Automatic annotation (TrEMBL):
The lineage of its organism: Bacteria, Pseudomonadati, Thermodesulfobacteriota, Desulfovibrionia, Desulfovibrionales. It comes from Candidatus Bilophila faecipullorum. This is Virulence factor. It holds the Pfam family Virul_Fac. InterPro entries: Vir_effector_SfrC. It comes from the Bacteria.
């Protein structure tokens, strides 16, 4: 981290502490703020989310991203930028090394990746026997991906049932004791961010407009006090109770919970080698949501180890770090190169329930939502501007 980045991170932290004091004063002085209290707290939360993102971004290296439609020459550009003078792109895998272009990157001319690949110099500390570093999606990232595919890949021709929607939220709220503690790995600010994401990107959908008054006012405060199954019942109202989506959310969040909801995790080299079974290849997502399949062990920095299917690990991976053994250009001293998966056309189906009965269609929905969302996430987190 440069001196300027360190100063920015410290300024963000100081501002967050100031906002925390402001929030405390607003809550302690309801008579002084009157009816403006809720609006002031919402604005404070919005500013806090932005400051956290700025602080997190300042702690990472500057990056250049390559994003575009599938089959548009991105792989050729990445190879030209990252390979060494011999045409190789050697990456460190513990004590060993592999050529990313020849040994890891999927072969063939089809669009073949479903995650972001970060090319960087140097290598951070990793658990023994787990040299492959991953950045993981969060529980709410999974929700956003499912929301993205539901509204971008499906046409919504029916008018939402307002009474049924309100009744479902009422039933879930009544099931929570007044003194129930917050138990989710996210907070109300994160729920407000989810609300902003859904509203900002899919406001044209009639059901999203109804969510504004019938769902979000209680969902933001309710979600974290619900048990996982009830939380899934709350979130599935965002995708009109498409049960395969809900089951996938529960399956993936269960893996994250077993890991302790970390931002990063680590895998053995078998996650990437041989490349025909690599988690970088979108073909690995086939069978997502089904039992069985090849298992991978995933480790965290604090020592947790969990076995999950290869498809689940691929689905939960937002970013794969490729630590280059050689410096292809001076700019890599201060800048990382991000290779985004190729943008895919949206399905625009009229009947999501029917589509989900087709073999392997669930992973196609998830993939399209994930590819679109990853680019949005990196922009929202200010890693790309």
């Amino acid at each position: 981290m440069t001196t300027e980045d360190q100063r920015l991170a410290e300024q963000c932290e100081a501002s967050l502490q100031t906002l925390a004091r402001v929030d405390g004063w607003i809550r302690s002085n309801p008579e002084a703020v009157g009816s403006s209290g809720e609006a002031l707290l919402r604005e404070s939360g919005r500013l806090a989310r932005a400051l956290r993102k700025e602080a997190a971004t300042a702690a990472r290296k500057m990056c250049v991203g390559v994003f575009g439609p599938s089959q548009s020459g991105k792989s050729y550009l990445i190879s030209a930028l990252a390979q060494d003078a011999d045409g190789s792109l050697l990456t460190s895998l513990g004590d060993a090394s592999a050529d990313f272009l020849q040994d890891i990157n999927p072969a063939g001319g089809k669009e073949s990746t479903g995650l972001v690949t970060r090319f960087t110099l140097g290598q951070s500390e990793r658990p023994p026997l787990f040299p492959v570093k991953l950045r993981l999606l969060s529980e709410l990232d999974i929700v956003k991906i499912l929301v993205n595919t539901y509204y971008a890949d499906c046409r919504h021709l029916t008018v939402p049932d307002e009474e049924a929607l309100a009744a479902r939220v009422d039933a879930l709220a009544r099931a929570v004791p007044p003194d129930a503690l917050w138990q989710a790995p996210f907070d109300e600010n994160d729920m407000a961010d989810l609300k902003d994401y859904v509203t900002r990107n899919f406001r044209a959908a009639a059901v999203v407009q109804k969510l504004e008054s019938l769902y979000w006012p209680r969902a933001v405060r309710l979600a974290g006090r619900l048990a996982p199954e009830d939380r899934a019942a709350l979130f599935e109202l965002l995708w009109d109770e498409a049960k395969p989506f809900t089951a996938l959310y529960l399956r993936l969040r269960t893996v994250l919970e077993a890991l302790g909801h970390p931002d990063e995790a680590f895998c053995p080299t078998t996650a990437l080698l041989p490349r025909e079974r690599s988690i970088i290849d979108v073909a690995t997502l086939r069978g997502l949501g089904q039992d069985g399949g090849d298992a991978l062990e995933v480790a965290t920095q604090n020592g947790r180890r969990v076995k999950a299917s290869r498809a689940e690990v691929a689905a939960l991976t937002a970013e794969l770090t490729i630590s280059m053994r050689h410096r292809p250009d001076d700019f890599f001293e201060h800048t990382d190169l991000l290779d985004f998966p190729g943008y895919r056309s949206r399905l625009k189906t009229d009947d999501v329930a029917r589509e989900l009965t087709k073999p392997d269609q669930l992973h196609e929905f998830f993939l399209r939502g994930k590819v679109a969302y990853l680019f949005e996430r990196y922009k929202s987190d200010l890693e790309l501007t």
